[in-house]
Design a protein that fits this description.
This protein is of the alpha/beta class. Helix content is 52%, strand content 18%. The chain contains 12 helices and 9 strands. The N and C termini lie far apart (92 Å). About 5% of the residues have low confidence. The structure holds ligand C2E and magnesium ion (3 copies). This is GGDEF-domain containing protein.
Length: 292
């Protein structure tokens, strides 16, 4: 009897999948602990004006340093959190940290925006606009300085509710960006229906656009589309100077990527902003003092 059970188990479940799901359960249990014991952190990646070279915005990216496994990628644990109800806690953790950091930078005179990623689930959560409003008020950040990044998959998930949630956020003055633009299988109808502020061209088109003609055409027409619709366009995944230059020539407003700055700590962002200010001050002084 036991042998039969064993045989059935083996024939019904792929051992690899089984191990995988046990692993996922363990990771999920660990994630609950991580939230309570401070293993989570937020990294920040700059977004740069491709014409002036100045930092104009920062994207908050969650980080998890697991005590045994080391760093776990967001793509590996965000989906787990989404399917377990932990995502609300994760998002409010990131939002709080990001807004606290932003409030400090803005108080120091750096006129930046902060982008925070929303999970697909949140977009149909009618309580979200109020949570966001409360977080902004708590940190004294004006709504226009916050950009919430959503994906096309999120927009498609529950259109009736998503429309209400996005409209309520925009009513408050919060900006909405479509992240990973071009990868989500959504028809373009939402660009007409929803008030969107920003398109982020997906890294998969940007990284190879100088070598792959299809990618180049997709990036070029996305930039043109965004500009004609009056949207800000941000290119993700810029890994070299030539790509940054091409994008600027195509009229792309803002860039993000390893070439412009890797995700890093809030302290490193502050150092970069101070360097930028010092350089701008020196340039202004050089213009005023003749002969310098
Ligand atoms: P995303 O929002 O599209 O974020 C950009 C991702 O690309 C980040 O990966 C970033 O580190 C990476 N990246 C930036 N520049 C380059 C580059 O030049 N080359 C390459 N190869 N990669 C670059 P990360 O931090 O691993 O995040 C992956 C995804 O996880 C994010 O994609 C976002 O969808 C999700 N995520 C991250 N943080 C959060 C969060 O706080 N909440 C939610 N809901 N999702 C998050
Ligand atoms: Mg993003
Ligand atoms: Mg993206
Ligand atoms: Mg992504």
């Amino acid at each position: 009897y036991h042998a039969k059970l064993e045989r059935d188990r083996i024939s019904t479940y792929s051992p690899a999948l089984d191990v995988n799901s046990v692993d996922r359960l363990q990771l999920l249990a660990d994630l609950r602990v991580a939230i309570d014991t401070g293993q989570l952190d937020v990294a920040y990646q700059v977004q740069v004006d491709l014409t002036s070279g100045h930092v104009v915005a920062v994207e908050a990216l969650i980080r998890w340093r697991h005590p045994q496994r080391g760093p776990v990628a967001p793509d590996d644990f965000i989906p787990l959190a989404e399917n377990s109800g932990l995502i609300a806690e994760l998002t409010s953790y990131v939002l709080d940290n990001a807004l606290a950091a932003l409030a400090g930078w803005r108080a120091a005179g750096h006129d930046l925006r902060m982008s925070v990623n929303l999970s697909t689930r949140h977009l149909s959560d009618l309580a979200l606009p109020r949570q966001v409003a409360e977080a902004l008020a708590r940190h004294g950040v004006e709504p226009g300085a916050l950009v919430l990044e959503v994906t096309e998959t999120g927009i498609l998930s529950d259109p009736a509710r998503v429309d209400v949630v996005i409209a309520a956020l925009r009513e408050q003055g919060v900006a909405i960006a479509v992240d990973d633009y071009g990868t989500g299988h959504a028809s373009l109808g939402y660009l007409k229906r929803l008030e969107i502020d920003e398109l982020k061209v997906d890294r998969s088109f940007v990284s190879d656009m100088r070598r792959n003609h299809q990618d180049f055409v997709i990036v070029r027409s996305t930039i043109a589309l965004a500009r004609d619709l009056g949207l800000r366009v941000v290119a993700e995944g810029i890994e070299d100077a030539d790509t940054a230059r091409s994008l600027a020539e195509l009229g792309c407003d803002v860039g993000q990527g390893y070439h412009l700055g890797r995700p890093t700590s809030a302290a490193e962002i502050v150092a970069r902003l101070s360097d930028e200010r010092r350089a701008a001050g020196a340039a202004a002084a050089a213009r005023i003092v003749p002969g310098r």
